[in-house]
Amino acid sequence: MNTVGGVFGGGQNVNITSTTPGANICYTIDSAPPTCATGTCDSGMVYTGTPITVSTTQTIRTIACLGGYTDSASVSNAYTIDTVPPSTPASVTLTPMSTSEIRLTWPAATDNVSVPAALVYEICRSTTAGGCSTFSVTATTPSGATQYNDYGLSTLTTYYYTVSARDEAGNVGTAGTEISATTLSAGTVATPVFTLPPCTYTFYLSDFAATGRSQGRFQFQILKRSKRSAASYSATTRR
Fold this sequence. Notes:
Strand order of the largest sheet: 1-9-8-3-6
Number of helices: 0
Largest sheet: 5 strands, mixed
CATH architecture of the largest domain: Sandwich
Number of domains: 3
């Protein structure tokens, strides 16, 4: 059969062939096995070369036979037609992991045909609120994943996300509510500090009461100015 079985989002046209020239091909679509007798179809329908249209979920079984030959093995393919999209991922959580990474997690969606392990998730990311109202796929997860780490983001930037589920047939569900998170800061800038640079002043002290002459010279190095009084200093002296 040219189209192998699987899950499809619409009808399929199936051709059946045999590499043995002149072989008769018998098939059924009701799961009953076709049979041959003396090189011709004994049960089932004879395939005439016109593609078999599969529009609903069904299994095609087939066998080939020809006079003078041993009948072929019977083979079958199951075709599941699924047009129902999966549910919307609920309770998506965003966790800023670093200055350049945000982690998304969510419970698995459900589908009428595909099991949770077969669902993939499409993620839309925007740097503006409402940017994913027209859904554009930024990333797609592996099948069954319920977590996605978004790397390569800008520091201290807010990002907006929506998530939708896609089943094996390609049906895409409705995207969830937009949520946002902000990447982490690189740190906090140190608070400014006011300082008074050290300086040295020279003072001359005189004992005018006794002699009327200068008695010596002292140097004062101002180390720190008091916060309470503009006239209060701590100082060291040397003579």
